[in-house]
Amino acid sequence: MNVLVACEFSGIVRDAFRKRGHNAYSCDILPCEGSQEFHFQEDIIRLLLMDVMPWDLMIAHPPCTYLATCQTWRCNRDPERAKKRDAAVGFAKLLWTCHIPRICIENPKSQLSTLMAKKSQTIHPWQFGHGEQKETWLWLKNLPPLVPTNIVEGREQKVWKMAPGPDRWKNRSRTYQGIADAMAEQWGCL
Prior knowledge:
The chain is α/β, with parallel strands linked by helices. 32% of the residues lie in helices and 18% in strands.
């Protein structure tokens, strides 16, 4: 299966699919933290327009800076932030409507549910082997909901409580390995 993981600099989801024998690539404007060999350091829209290969599945992680519901009140009061939110929604819509037959868009609790399409599923890391809460919404096109693989106790809000710093946004945006493995296991056989 040809798998494209959009807006992923970590390579975590890409590598979960590659370990299971899929032809998986990540794409981000940032360099990959893992192997560069299977990473397009490129704007995802440009890559999709280049029609590099016939993708069977795309898992997209559009930046949530202006999409998260916690930003709603800021966007409603600041016209510049509202413009950036509208651009972020437009970007997510482009990903959602591209010609790939199976699509997952992943974001935290997001304005996309009212501005693009209703979310398909809510997941947390604690359902996939990590003792943390981090409400994550999925929009699924031609994909079944993820089935929890390892429900664990602990359930603390580590991500929410991360200390400020230059890499905080990166650390908060990484996909948990258990979730990546579930995606590869459950969606890689479709």
